[in-house]
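Q: Could you predict the 3D structure of Peptidase S8 and S53 subtilisin kexin sedolisin?
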Amino acid sequence: MRHQVRFGLGAAAALLVVAGLPVPAHADEVRDDQWMLNALGIEQAHKETRGAGVTIGIVDSGVDATHPDLKGNVEAGQASWEGGKDGLKDTMGHGTAMASILVGHGHGDGGEDGVLGIAPEAKVKSVSIYPSSDPRDDPRGSHDRMVEGIRWLADEGVDVISVSQGGAGSDALEEAVKYAVEEKGIPLVASAGNTAGGPTGDVVVQAPAVYDNVFSATGTTKQGKFWDGSVEGTSPDDVTVAAPAEDVVHAWNDRGYDDNSGTSDSAAIVAGTIALMKAQWPDMSRETIEWRLTETADEKGKDGPDTKYGFGIVNPAEALTAHVDPPDGVSDEEINPEPNPKASASPSPSKDDGALTASDSGAGPVVWIVVAVVAILAAAVVSFILIRRRRQPPAA
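A: Sure. Here are the predicted structure tokens for Peptidase S8 and S53 subtilisin kexin sedolisin:
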């Protein structure tokens, strides 16, 4: 799978901004390349709510809370290994990428640059389970830390749990999922798995996605077809919904960006959609959320759920606005409650929101000219350092 690192500002431009000198205007390729926003109707969904008041627990490699597109939207959580900085040290970049899909708010004037997430006014609480850049270094330990992390987030009372990971599973992992989902009533979303991802590639839906009452997400392409890198279920019960997985753009460590393909992205998109639903209806049960989410999905396969798409491709705007027929024995008011008045979408931010800017040091023009010359010369070297390919993080 392709995994290409991008940078929102060129090396020379970044140094010039830090130096306090103007940067030539440029199109923001990051936002332009977020094809999933149009495909999912996110602009329409954000007219209803942008996720304010919701906390999403994320079990991953940690999150870089200093990224301009995430600043202010990341809460310290837990690192199950020494040196993890309460989940705010990202060893791989994968956790930062998933967080940006969930709660990225962009940066710059009006937040129009960088990555826009599904629920840009929600928060993520990070649990870091990888002590190195390669989970194969300690697969058993990472599994145990996932178990601990899910239980810890459940006790913290987060609104949604997003797990863009997967593996063979265990009794301990299944019990942790049951604790979060059944005892605490927290929706938990997990990636189904990638046929070409991870150490060996997956062939069936992975744990925890395969467990009962977990929202299991498979992947789709830009054309809305089943992504051939995604596993499919052995039965329709293995898959809840599908979501974009191909060439998804996200934030990366050290203020960078990348694009990647994987059902990790699909799971984050579904979790972000549920976060919007929890903002719209804070008291809505997990069961009702599942009913609305599946009933409003865009059906792609045969009638009813299937092994590739589940109930269809997730549709955030419809999940928030459609009048859904209730199942037998359930009232219309339970499935279609009045929205939370506080969920109404607030305007996009008009300030810079943490992008790279110069501090007001009061230096004179001669100083700035000297700094500019040094910056330009340094940029020629730095650009060669920055333009490189990172190794693929495993996306379950």
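Q: Anything worth pointing out?
A: The first helix runs from residue 11 to 18.
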